[in-house]
Fold:
Amino acid sequence: MTTAVKERAGNLFNSSQVRKRVRNNIWRNRYIYMMVIPVLIYMALLKYLPMYFLRASFYDFKLLKGFEGSKYVGLKWFERLLSSPEMWQYIRNTLVLNSLSLLICFPAPLVFALLLNEVHSKPYEKFVQTISYLPHFVSTVVLVSMINNILSPSLGTLAKIYKIMGQTPINFLSKPDYFYGINIVSGVWQTMGWNAIIYISAISGIDQTLYEAARMDGAGRWKQTLHVTVPGILPTFILLLIMQIGQMLNCVFDKIFLLQNTLNLQVSEMLPTYVYKVGMESHKYGLATAGGLFNSVLSVILVLLANTISKKVTETSLF
Structure:
């Protein structure tokens, strides 16, 4: 046999061996792979299949007539969106809320994780951590009900305190100036403990010899945190920051929607709530789809931009 033939036979043999090992591995871990199937079905039905209907943004789409019976209008809906002053107001509201969230809600779990790392009593640390992430499991409807019960100007807790102090209760939910603050405070309470789990896991993965070396150099707890802990979790923080920037034009839809009323609508109407109302209440499916597609494209651009800047500045990126 020639050398080329031998090499080809060897490659075929190796490839057959590889395929056999792969099949054996899949069969050995078949129950684990079966657990992945529901996730794949979920992604296919609720994430990828709906993308087919994005072309409704180029039609005067009628639900009962479908694409065949709907009129093709080209970029009409995008032109209407971009020329609407209200649309830019909704984008501004969304950016303001998410910018405040980025400045306050996003770093709060990091600070909480650093503080929790300094607790020397393990039982107390576990107790605090458990209590802190329990609000994550409170549904948004229940959370909004709690906010209403606390801030109600007639029967709310704060209203009773104001009356005891001889002052007139404030209707916080009807005043636009308080809307962002209510969302930020409730957001910190609900997400801080749960999101801190990621940072706590990152801290636990830091090499302990680095702390020992820092102590031998005379570093106290503050300098150990500053020069060992923070650099150790910085890549995790940057990756989460990139993904958070990609969500700048989104919001916690159900909470925003439930807290809306006619008195605070000038600041509470966000891009996602506007798209929902246009599509589900006004039945302008083409315009709503165009708004959703516009939102998604801008989100992708923000992620790419943030990822590029992070890669150049910190050498940490998603891809």
Summary: The chain has a mean pLDDT of 88. The radius of gyration is 27 Å. Residues 3-52 form one domain. The CA atoms of residues 12 and 225 lie 55 Å apart.
